[in-house]
Amino acid sequence: MCGIVGYIGNQEAYPILIKGLHRLEYRGYDSAGIALINPSGDLNIYKTKGRVSDLEEFCDSKDISATIGIAHTRWATHGEPNNANAHPHYSETENLALIHNGIIENYAVLKEQLMQKGYHFLSNTDTEVLIQLIEYIQTLNHVDVCTALQLALGQVIGAYAIAVMEKGNPDQIIVARKSSPLVLGIGENEFFIASDASPIIEYTNKVIYLEDEEIAIVKRHEQPRIVTIGNVEKTREIIQLELSLSQLEKGGFPHFMLKEIFEQPHTLRDCMRGRVDVTCNNIVLSGILDHRERFLQAKRIIILACGTSWHAGLIGEYLIEEICRIPVEVEYSSEFRYRHPVIYPDDIIIAISQSGETADTLAAIELAKKEGAFVYGICNVVGSSIPRNTHSGSYTHVGPELGVASTKAFTAQLCVLTMMALCIAREKKVLPQSRILELLHELNLIPDKIEQILNANDSIQKLSNIFTYAHNFIYLGRGYNYPVALEGALKLKEISYIHAEGYPAAEMKHGPIALIDNEMPVVVIATDNDMYEKVISNIQEIKARNGRVIAIVSETDTVVKSIADYVIEVPATEDCFEPLLTTIPLQLLSYHIAVNKRRDVDMPRNLAKSVTVE
Ligand code: G6P
After folding, report:
1. 354: Cβ below 6 Å to ligand 1?
2. How many whole angstroms from its chain centre is CA 506?
3. Which of 145, 213, 221, 349 could be 368's S-S partner, Cβ–Cβ 3.0 to 4.6 Å?
4. Kind and range of the H or E element at 59?
5. Does the CB atom of residue 334 touch ligand 1 within 6 A?
6. pTM of this prediction?
7. How do residues 31-50 score in pLDDT, each as one tens digit?
8. Domain spans, the chain
């Protein structure tokens, strides 16, 4: 989703801004642009549809001398991806330039009013309305740009992270945020602005996170001043980030996605570090233990999430209900927030989000908090909005995930949910201690077992060649592996653009079975667990209709191996930990099919990594 970068300092701004845009490419975008104030005070905007590299080409012959600038990657919401709709946008007189991430919901009414006052619009965006409004207020009231911005933001409904520059003022960038992320980087006599820390980290690890409805006036040689839209002065703590530059690079892998798939043994160990201690037979999740009573008294848990995180939530439901005996509901955040849900004060909400910025999940959290529920966040991005707006939580600690299709964040979300379930079960005394320890020891072995599965990468690549040209796929699983089937199908469609459906295997005969013929690949998770015999019957039903079965099986399996067309083996584990293993071959299969089809694996079309609009 839209990416924002800004710089003011002693260095040339252009290379810093371009590099910053490249660092934000992973978020997903369709056009890019830059605004620079040159030493004579001219405010120049250059923008183009396409990639950041297209913008660089476009800027080749342009005046790019400046030590102040703002830049943007746009993920289209209002108006198609084209040059005119790309950011930055000028105001009517071309005195102001603005970049924006978010949506101005009442833009149509404001636009109409401004057009009646003689303002002209060059784009179809909601963003252009905001910059025109700021200039209109500035001219009407004879106020400075900051005051005009405050007054304008008081009139807009919606979400925004914005940065504004003014012609003839090469010493100031003004930024503001509401419900869209924005980070300020504090260097030595230089300041950085970005949607997240990735463009900033190579210059400084000192950052300030703005809160909703806050404005920062970032001036050359001065510490940023922070005020609210209502003009109340604020002080914000400077935070030291632990992010390292190497975490933002591919480390010899052709794609971030493959790197992230291969990182999983390591990221799961990081996720468990300091929490699972097999030598002392202990599990510590401070986010739970600090609020032990709330968890002991909880009558119900509601899990809220979107996309892949929602799939993790479904597995969390199975885990928590089985291990803790607490009823769990799993909801899409976007549905929950608008369907007038019944929320009790003794409900616990678990909000799962890799980015910690998903707009629907944030809004659903606010709703639940208003009703008095306790909200626990499971997030990856440290310092993002969800961890800052929840009562407690656990980070997944997998480092930056840059492939748009989530892989290592998903398995770490499962790991956190598992640790939560074990920790709650122990405190509630609903599971014998000996069983908890058995599970704990098995969880500790999962990273090694994933390493074993990753060794099959070459054979999965070979298998992918057979199915690269399929037009449809069905994924089936039961029990814990039903959400894995959903996730496998999502991964394939996200990055290969092949249509894929995930289904509970038994439901197949209520519809999808009509699709099965000798051209339909069906991926079935058929590991040796409680559901094994049932899944075998489902495979028979597919084979009876000439479907082509790719089965994920246990190493010891003989039956499925004799019926399926192709098999991929995974080591044995507890039923409830199977998703941590069965997911891995499905990630690899999707990856290789997408590579065979020459797709842009890390930045699939139309998708965004961090969905900051509802
Ligand atoms: C986007 C991403 C998905 C992700 C979903 C939820 O659609 O492309 O990979 O699962 O958002 O994001 P979150 O950051 O809340 O987990």
Report:
1. yes
2. 31
3. 349
4. helix 52-59
5. no
6. 0.89
7. 999 999 999 999 999 999 99
8. 3-246, 251-452, 456-614
